[in-house]
């Protein structure tokens, strides 16, 4: 019979982890540049958690959506709690809830910007 392994993590945590967002973005951009040989646009954030690790919520993470030559990629950044950031990439499913919501938000933003630009040109 296997013994249950109990985690040393607290049950819950609400204490924030201090993360340098510029460093986080630099790590993401570097991973994209190394993979594709050129910069790729980051469309937005799919999910984030910046609290100390706990049993109920897990470890801190940061997940973004990027548009690459291979299509949409989800980049998952973890390990910044320990001080070593790791990035993993996986194809993003367009029909997943978070990706669908983010793409709809990007679409609305682009439409609104196009309307503002057209109104500016019309006013001149």
| Low-confidence regions | none
Nearest-integer average pLDDT: 88
Order of helices and strands: HEEEEH
**Topology, number of strands:** 4
Helical amount among residues, as a percent range?
25-40%
Our estimate of the beta-strand percent is: 15-25%
Question: Could you give a short description of this structure?
Answer:
The protein is built from two helices and four strands; from the N terminus they run H-E-E-E-E-H.
Describe this structure in words.
The longest helix is centred in the C-terminal third of the chain and has 27 residues, at 97-123. This protein has a domain at 21-92. It has helices spanning 21-36, 97-123; strands spanning 42-49, 61-68, 71-78, 86-91. The chain is α+β, with helices and mostly antiparallel strands. The chain starts with 20 loop residues before the first helix and ends with a helix. The model has no long low-confidence stretch (mean pLDDT 88). Strand 2 (61-68) and strand 3 form a beta hairpin. The relative contact order is 0.15.
Which helices and strands occur, and which strands form pairs?
Blueprint: H1 21-36, E1 42-49, E2 61-68, E3 71-78, E4 86-91, H2 97-123
Antiparallel strand pairs: 1-2, 2-3, 3-4
Salient structural properties:
4-stranded antiparallel beta sheet, 2 helices, 24% strand, alpha+beta
């Amino acid at each position: 019979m296997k013994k249950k392994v109990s985690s040393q993590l607290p049950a819950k945590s609400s204490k924030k982890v201090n993360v340098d967002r510029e460093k986080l973005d630099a790590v993401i951009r570097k991973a994209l540049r190394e993979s594709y040989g050129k910069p790729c646009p980051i469309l937005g954030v799919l999910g984030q958690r910046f609290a100390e690790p706990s049993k109920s919520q897990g470890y801190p993470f940061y997940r973004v959506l990027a548009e690459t030559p291979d299509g949409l990629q989800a980049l998952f950044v973890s390990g910044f709690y320990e001080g070593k950031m790791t990035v993993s990439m996986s194809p993003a499913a367009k029909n997943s809830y978070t990706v669908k919501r983010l793409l709809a938000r990007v679409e609305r933003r682009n439409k609104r910007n196009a309307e503002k630009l057209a109104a500016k040109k019309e006013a001149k």
